[in-house]
Amino acid sequence: MSFRFLLVVNTAGGLVVDAVTQWDAGLRDAGMRRQLASRALVLFVAEQTPTMLLPNGGALLGHAFSKDGSRIDDARRFPSFEDAAQTRAHLMKHCWGPYLLVQPDDEHGGITVMREPSPHSDVACFYTLRDGKGFATSDISLPERLGLYRRQVDWDAIRHRLAFPQLKTAHTALAGVHELLPGSALHLKEDHATTRLLWSPWEFVTREARHRDSDEAAADVRSAVSTATKALAGIDRSILLELSGGLDSSIVGVCLRGASTPTVCTSLVTTVPGADERTYAVQIADQLGVELHTGTLHLDSARFDFGVHPQCMTPRVGVLQHAVDEVMLAAAARHGTESFFSGGGGDTIFCALDTAAPAADAIRERGPFAGMAAVRDLATLHQCTLLKAGRLTLRKMRRARYVDRAPDGLFLAPGISVPPTEAHPWSTAPQNALPGDRERIRSLATCQAYRDSLARGESLTMRMPLLAQPAVEACLRTPSWMWIAGGRNRAIARMAFADLLPPDILHRRSKGTFMSYLGAVYRRNRGPMRDFLLQGRLQQEDLLDTKAIAEFMRHDIPEGGHAFTRVFDLCIVENWVRHQP
Prior knowledge:
Blueprint: E1 5-10, H1 17-28, E2 32-37, E3 41-46, E4 51-53, E5 59-62, E6 64-66, E7 71-72, H2 84-94, E8 95-96, E9 99-104, E10 111-115, E11 126-130, E12 133-137, H3 141-145, H4 155-163, E13 178-179, E14 184-189, E15 192-197, H5 214-233, E16 239-242, H6 247-255, E17 263-270, H7 278-288, E18 292-297, H8 319-335, E19 339-341, H9 346-349, H10 357-366, H11 368-382, H12 386-398, H13 435-452, H14 456-459, E20 461-463, H15 469-477, H16 491-496, H17 503-506, H18 515-534, H19 537-540, H20 546-552, H21 564-578
Parallel strand pairs: 16-17, 16-19, 17-18, 19-20
Antiparallel strand pairs: 1-3, 1-12, 2-3, 4-5, 5-9, 6-7, 6-8, 9-10, 10-14, 11-12, 11-13, 14-15
Helix pairs in contact: 5-15, 10-11, 10-12, 10-13, 11-12, 18-21
């Protein structure tokens, strides 16, 4: 990962020269150099991390682009604002990219750190502050190296993770360490650390911001996705494009046409049926004029007890993610590529909802007669009767506006104490929010957890252009009912790239999955996984229902639907805590 920094702070201005000199020496062999220093802060940045010192004394780390995709890399052309807040507002409104802003506020005291809004980028920021002393960093090993932090499991966070496996919050699973979430600013002053949301997805789904016409929406989506993809490709020397064969990665692929960055295409297959998408993926590779390479996920290489990257701050990396990481990292090493490009996040931003919410939105916004077109589209999309689609739409309209997620208690000890759910900053919806907007913005918040599961992004840069700020904003402006027009999911994305996508991909409705692979892995590893859980640290902390797990895992073939995937999820957490002190 090229993006690395460490900001050490003493808000009382108590940093001494001798300590800073020692930190210089301690970080030198880690490739870190000092960029800013005062009695209140010292900022170290990796040599590979682009850094631009701004006219007002702040530092912009990473890459920032203007709306048209041109890179902002000259501080002399960056606007100079008297008020530090104006700099933050300018970046949020007029710029985008994988960047982090650090601003010392000498006039009012304190330090501000701002993270760009993308749910997935090469930027990460973790922080802690106690008695006015602390740090913010992209890499927890850096403060550990200097003796500023000692790693310890936060068992309350582990209980929360077990009960709400998909929920993303600012809490990490390490004691005392929080994450600065996308689109937020952290202000460190005296002995307080406060955060403020500066970018909200709700700004882009209002009636005033919403696209009125599908042609306009398709043009906006095409421009935003193409611009983001090409701009991100322009800052990398070489790319490994992960082609799944589906619509999302194919769109990223066609947007790379004409890019000057050398590109290698790789598709994954398994040794069991269900995931071979090479028939589709090769068509995109052919458009790029390159060979399609294949990576194979073998059953005997699937592990649940693998080593955990030190940068995994929350247990997210599982059997499938680890196996994919290993194959993709090996492919990158073989081809000499420095970054991964993926279509990850497409389900979310292209509004692939599996509920009746889009039709409910259309009726609420356009009235019952115009909204009936969306009900017909819903029936066609899900291949059900018009009566059933209408009934589900009415039920969605009558349902409570917001329902908290219920904890997942499967295989957890009865009566386990679970900390209250922490509201994600994007979860506060306007009173009149549409059901579909609630669902897709909730999904957008969940995409932030997806970043945690891709450990290969800690070794090489992981790019997801579909989750770049311009693409997210353009897709949010497109109302949910437009995405199911004609009974097709992702309808606006298909419309936007219809002239570039091969017909087989443009019109396909199905996609391969890895469920057969996971089922085979479960059957192969059932006994060792059972022992792993029943003799592990989670069991020692009395967090598991050992009798229920033992009974369920007596069976060779997974039962209870996909309940066996819950076993994998428990193994994720168990494996992570075993690799902590």
